[in-house]
Amino acid sequence: MAKHEKSFEESGKRIYNAVEYEMSRQQAYGNWQIMLNEALVRASVIKYFIDHGASEIEIQMMVKKESNNGFIWIKGLVDELKKYDNQRNIYPTLESYIPVLSNAYKTYAEKISQFDAERPKVESLTEFTNNDANVNSQLKTITINFDRPLAGKGYSVNYGSKGKSAFPKLDNIYYTNENKSVVMEVQLMPDKEYQFVLTGKNFKTEKGIPLKTFEVNFKTTKKPNR
């Protein structure tokens, strides 16, 4: 796809903006070009299994796995490869099908951008700003504020790339502010880096729209602030 990069640039950037955390932080895909190449590879693998007799359940599981990895347009891309395969008399090579694929990506980008705009997002932290390196270790709560109310029916707070050792000890977690905020009761240690990730697995609106993934990083001071 590198030869035809220009025709995918706008749609690629729009999609990457919506799934940047999943691409850059979880899989080290640092730009939209790598993302699109990986998407084509993964869709081709699924198409291969379809062609070689994989069950519908197996295919659904593969699509779900890739969607969870951030490739939320993967089903559409697999369907596009099916269309290409059925029109080899018109499009003898994948390169000849690139203009059609480029148009398909414009559709994916539009739908994903609309979806991204509807997703609730983290607006702020109350006790400190994200990436703060001077957080008081005596802090007992971390309050996450969202830009709209959530359903208030679950939580999904996960380890980040720094793993379990950077995850704060949680005593309790609960909604407040008419479900526009979540309070995490924590126990922190001095001079320590912390990290956790909020995901849309359980943080959702009443309509079931998932939160946009948000990573929180901070470091406590060597001595408690008085």
Describe this structure in words.
- Helix 1 packs parallel to helix 6 and helix 3 packs antiparallel against helix 4 (56-68).
- It is elongated and about 70 Å long.
- The protein has 2 domains: 2-118, no CATH class; 122-219, Immunoglobulin-like (Sandwich).
- It has a 4-stranded antiparallel sheet, with no helix packed on it. A 3-stranded antiparallel sheet has the order 3-6-7, with no helix packed on it.
- 38% of the residues lie in helices and 17% in strands.
- With 226 residues, it is an alpha+beta fold.
The SS-based structural class is: alpha+beta
Mean pLDDT: 94
Strand arrangement, major sheet: 1-2-5-4
> Could you list the spans in which at least 5 consecutive residues all have pLDDT below 50?
none
Fraction of residues in β-strands: 15-25%
Whole-angstrom Rg: 21 Å
Q: Give, in order, the helices and strands.
A: HHHHHHEEEEEEE
- Quick one: how many beta strands? 7
Largest pleated sheet: 4 strands, antiparallel
Instruction: Give the termini distance in whole angstroms.
Output: 57 Å
| Helix residue percentage | 25-40%
Overall shape? elongated
